[in-house]
């Protein structure tokens, strides 16, 4: 009765601030509604001890309780995330804690980074195929008009990147964190580039190799199971898409210096990655980052754009072009969430109930975080500092195909 009274008092406090489409089902069969409207989200407390999660409803607390099966949640993931964030806002102080404290304490060795990548990516290729596009592109899509389907938007994203770095036939391209090989294959098939893609995921490596062979591109594309720090040689172009989040804040200058060592003197590189919008590199509010570090991306750390540009300069690179694609990633994650829910039965078969719940929260939570400007996504085109970027025209028109990409305009 004591806990039920505390819950009732807490609910009354929340209802004074807002009406939510939420129902709480108690362990004794009773329920509490937060609005007169029909609930879109129901949280069931199977035992009295589970009430503690609601009384301090951070994203970390409620997310962990859902994942571990201490509470049950019914409803669309988008509604779940919106309701939980509303509960957190009404009850907790919005503080941005440090991102991935465990990762900073342990440090980023090659072995730890490899383990973290395999934890996230080596679930199974079929698991990812349930919610990604047919090209298996696991990064922010590019919605040029805003109404594209996911497959089209992912191809446009790759083409947008290749246009930005002005890839030409016969040039060499290194794709750091190549995933299942989509960018390298597109660069080879459409531009005739000679590509090397590196990944630390065994599953990605095996499928990417097979896809390259089946596409008849083995003479142009080499996929390696290799750490980017072990790559040798020089490349005309370098891309890194959705990878630098795993590097670690303290190691960003080293990461960009490694890109500089691998880049030809007049080469062009592009880094595409998620950033924190907190100037102090803090995590998302209400414990969202804590949840992701524990269950989704161990060792992951997000830097603010300002620190990224500083680290890039410390690594000997100059930024030529910066583009914010935050809205594009919000839509991408939203579509992934819809695909995930549509394939829920198969996802559970492939990954089990616990991992299903982890990803259900994670995908919808990321979409919400991008929508709220808690996190962002930037593409940064760069080259070696102090060099005249002869490979790039004077204006940005070459990216959008207005005809200003002739050799004369790049002189």
From TrEMBL:
UniProt domain DUF7884: residue ranges: 13-94
Lineage: superkingdom: Bacteria
Single GO BP term: methylation
Pfam families (alphabetical): CMAS, DUF7884
CDD domains the record matches: AdoMet_MTases
Active site: 366
SUPFAM superfamilies listed in its UniProt record: S-adenosyl-L-methionine-dependent methyltransferases
Molecular function, one GO term: methyltransferase activity
Keywords in alphabetical order: Lipid metabolism, Methyltransferase, S-adenosyl-L-methionine, Transferase
Family note: Belongs to the CFA/CMAS family.
The protein's name: Cyclopropane-fatty-acyl-phospholipid synthase
Species whose genome carries this gene: Pseudoduganella namucuonensis
Native organism taxonomy: Bacteria, Pseudomonadati, Pseudomonadota, Betaproteobacteria, Burkholderiales
């Amino acid at each position: 009765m004591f806990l039920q009274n505390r819950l009732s008092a807490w609910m009354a406090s929340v209802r004074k601030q807002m009406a939510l489409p939420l129902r709480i089902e108690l362990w004794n069969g009773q329920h509490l509604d937060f609005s007169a409207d029909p609930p879109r989200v129901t949280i069931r407390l199977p035992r009295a001890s589970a009430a503690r999660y609601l009384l301090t409803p951070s994203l970390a607390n409620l997310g962990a309780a859902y994942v571990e099966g201490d509470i049950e949640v019914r409803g669309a993931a988008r509604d779940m995330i919106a309701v939980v964030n509303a509960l957190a806002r009404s009850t907790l102080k919005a503080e941005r804690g440090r991102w991935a404290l465990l990762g900073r304490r342990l440090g980023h060795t090659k072995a730890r980074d490899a383990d973290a990548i395999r934890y996230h990516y080596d679930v199974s290729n079929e698991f990812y195929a349930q919610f990604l596009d047919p090209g298996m592109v696991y990064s922010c899509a590019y919605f040029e008009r805003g109404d594209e389907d996911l497959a089209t938007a992912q191809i446009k994203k790759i083409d947008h990147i290749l246009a930005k770095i002005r890839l030409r036939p016969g040039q060499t391209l290194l794709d750091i964190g190549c995933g299942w090989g989509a960018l390298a294959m597109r660069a080879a098939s459409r531009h005739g580039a000679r590509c090397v893609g590196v990944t630390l995921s065994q599953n990605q490596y095996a499928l990417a190799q097979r896809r390259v062979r089946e596409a008849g591109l083995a003479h142009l594309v080499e996929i390696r199971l290799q750490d980017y720090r072990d790559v040798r040689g020089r490349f005309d172009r370098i891309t890194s898409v959705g990878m630098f989040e795993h590097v670690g804040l303290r190691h960003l200058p080293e990461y960009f210096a490694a890109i500089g060592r691998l880049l030809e003197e007049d080469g062009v590189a592009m880094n595409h990655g998620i950033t924190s919008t907190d100037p102090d590199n803090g995590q998302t509010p209400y414990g969202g980052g804590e949840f992701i570090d524990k269950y989704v991306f161990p060792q992951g750390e997000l830097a603010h754009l300002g620190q990224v540009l500083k680290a890039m300069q410390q690594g000997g690179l100059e930024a030529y072009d910066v583009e914010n694609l935050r809205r594009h990633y919000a839509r991408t994650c939203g579509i992934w969430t819809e695909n995930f829910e549509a394939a829920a039965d198969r996802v559970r078969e492939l990954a089990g109930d616990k991992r299903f719940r982890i990803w259900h929260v994670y995908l919808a939570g990321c979409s919400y975080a991008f929508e709220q400007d808690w996190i962002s996504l930037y593409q940064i085109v760069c080259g070696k500092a102090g060099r005249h970027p002869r490979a790039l025209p004077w204006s940005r028109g070459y990216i959008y195909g207005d005809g200003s990409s002739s050799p004369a305009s790049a002189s």
